[in-house]
Design a protein that fits this description.
N Utilization Substance Protein A, Chain:P, domain 4, OB fold (Dihydrolipoamide Acetyltransferase, E2P), 4 domains, 5-stranded antiparallel beta sheet, 4-stranded mixed beta sheet, 15 helices, 24% strand, elongated
Length: 401
């Protein structure tokens, strides 16, 4: 068994890159537990493995004392001096206690330890490999799907694509090659610790190993695609300030450049729209609105609501991140967008709560405000203006729900 074990350790180090010292250390610890289980004592026992000859020996470690109270743990000074005249009180002496049949136990334990270590090292190697790709794009092949996930083969690991990370309307068939965004890689050791009180869940985690989560709907997928297609974004000449995305349908991207002579929008669109076209094709026709970011909130909001024409942006005095946008009567539907999408994306892009009102309705509200008596300059709290031309983000989202 000794020769076979040494050969196995050498093969593991060569083929799997698992150092012999790591397995030997784990093996010695496991053999102590095996000795305790089979022979009823191990509090003062240690097991050594000879890495050159492959011999396994068990030693009882005893402390040198004047008076022996427990012969399993202690040895008298007089007996110790018979072994070696250099021993003193407090020293420890190893006495070999290797059982005759310990080789069989050692062989079984060695097999279990090696298999466990191989699995752990392989999982850790996979984690180390794919953790480097966290927050990056990878290309994988769809393997299968079930009620919860689409499973994507990334090479050495099977990543999971949950329903919320899928793009509505996209169909994922076996052997399809797709680009995915790796947004989380979970360490297998963290998996075990997180579920240490749930035995069944813990076993599943151990069998599964490191878990890689990928997405097709994440806004940062779009950001990485633009970095790949637009060199000026990759090198920092043009910066993506914000992204608002409704995956599979439409997205708005705010870009900026502080260098004179650089058109950030034109740079992202590319000659004849080739750069943005490549991204649109990869995302199966998802529409892209590229707008220029501005330090001026009013200008930024106007840009975010394009292609609608904006007449005025009024900011709420009581809420720093709320405003009312006034548009021509003919532009109201365009500003709001189909099912409120344009207004909703603009709000997410800018971080402002946006109310959109038509020009005629705004004039009516201003007139009513001017007609109020000076002593009653505040509108009654219970009074609401009802008109089909006044639409807010909250109304839109409530209708959608």
């Amino acid at each position: 068994m000794s020769k076979e074990l040494l050969n196995a350790l050498d093969a593991l180090e060569t083929e799997k890159g698992i150092k012999k010292e790591v397995i030997i250390d784990a093996l010695e610890q496991a053999l102590v537990s095996a000795y305790k289980k089979n022979y009823g004592q191990a509090q003062n026992v240690k097991v050594t493995f000879d890495a050159k000859r492959g011999d396994i020996k068990v030693f009882a470690v005893k402390e040198v004392v004047n008076e022996v109270l427990d012969s399993c743990l202690e040895v008298s000074l007089s007996d110790a001096l018979e072994i070696n005249r250099a021993y003193e009180i407090g020293d420890t002496i190893d006495f070999e206690v290797t059982p005759r049949d310990f080789g069989r136990i050692a062989a079984q334990t060695a097999k279990q330890v090696i298999m466990q270590r191989v699995r752990e090292e392989e999982r850790q190697m996979i984690y180390n490999q794919y953790s480097r790709y966290e927050n990056e794009i990878m290309t994988g092949e769809v393997e299968r799907r079930d009620s919860r996930y689409v499973y994507v083969n990334l090479g050495n690991v099977e990543a999971v694509l949950s329903k919320r990370d899928q793009v509505p309307g996209e169909v994922y068939n076996s052997h399809d090659r797709i680009k995915v965004y790796v947004y989380k890689v979970v360490d297998p050791n963290e998996n075990q610790n997180a579920e240490q009180n749930e035995e069944e869940g813990k076993k599943k985690r151990r069998n599964r190993g490191p878990q890689v989560y990928v997405s097709r709907s994440h806004p940062d997928l779009l950001k990485r695609m633009f970095e790949n297609e637009v060199p000026e974004i990759f090198d920092g000449t043009v910066e993506i300030k914000s992204i608002a995305r409704e995956a599979g349908d439409r997205a708005k991207i705010a870009v900026y450049s502080d260098q004179e002579g650089i058109d950030p929008i034109g740079t992202c669109v590319g000659p004849r729209g080739e750069r943005v076209k490549a991204i649109v094709e990869e995302l199966n026709g998802e529409k892209m609105d590229i707008v220029e970011w501005s330090e001026d909130p009013s200008e930024y909001i106007k840009a975010a609501l394009k292609p609608a024409e904006i007449l005025e942006v009024r900011f709420d005095r009581e809420d720093d991140h709320a405003c009312t946008v006034v548009v021509p009567d003919t532009q109201l539907s365009l500003a709001i967008g189909k099912r409120g999408q344009n207004a909703r994306l603009a709000a997410h892009l800018t971080g402002y709560k946006i109310d959109i009102k038509s020009e005629s309705n705004m004039e009516e509200l201003d007139r009513q405000s001017e007609e109020e008596p000076e002593e009653n300059f505040e509108l009654p709290e219970t009074e609401d203006v009802e008109t089909e031309d006044v639409i807010s983000i909250e109304d839109i989202e409530a209708d959608n729900e």
